[in-house]
Amino acid sequence: METNTGKFNSDIIRQWANFIAILAAFFMNIYVNIAPPGGQTIGVISNTMFKNVLITPASYAFAIWGLIYLGLISFGIYQLLPEQRENKILRRCQYFLVGTSLAQIVWIFLFQYQLFTFSVLAMLGILGFLICLYLNLGISYERVSKKDKWLVYYPISIYVAWISVATIVNVACALDSLGWNSSEKFAIILTIIMLIIGTIIAAIINIQKQDIAYPLVFIWALTAIAVRHLDILVLAISAGILALGLAILVSLKFFFKRF
Known about the structure:
The protein is mainly α. The chain contains 10 helices and no strands. It has helices at about 1-35, 40-50, 65-80, 90, 95-110, 115-135, 145-175, 185-210, 215-230, 235-259. Helix 1 (about 1-35) packs parallel to helix 5 (about 95-110). The model has no long low-confidence stretch (mean pLDDT about 90).
């Protein structure tokens, strides 16, 4: 009886901890955009100080944060429901989202105060917690209900994918802030290499884990990079081809999965 009570209390603590952590990160993002502590919003810093960082997508791409937080808040409410208290899928989430949210809040302040090198460490923390969560959930390795798929798996997959993209961009920005300079030709080649590596990772995840959400985020990012660099034809074409290749792979996987 005591064991059941202890597990019951543990589930409630986990539910509320994850829900509060999601809301804390969400409202912190709203706050720093309304009243940025460093005087400039993250978007302004990115568009001014790092306008020459080639791997940064077009500004509209960051609207995906609206979808990410819609998914996370929906997840938070879903996992908070009494009937989901003993859901084995949700129990696997443990406190990884708490760690993710705390690391994200730290990242916000580090980036706001232009401590870009340290912000990379915080971003790696966000990515690390999310990878642990992603692997712990075992996405696509077992059949789950539609509710769990739409309210747990997809929100987490989208979040992990975008943070994967954001980590690459964050590292590039930090190097730029340290005065790491190169010729435009070398910068273009390096950017294309990083895009290829990211695309390969997204393709592997789509093939091995049959995760459709993860590569779709990369298609979104690659398309936005192509749009931003229409003046650099080789970069725009490369990003476009990679986005198209991923889109074909996702379509084929979806088609053969249905039949």
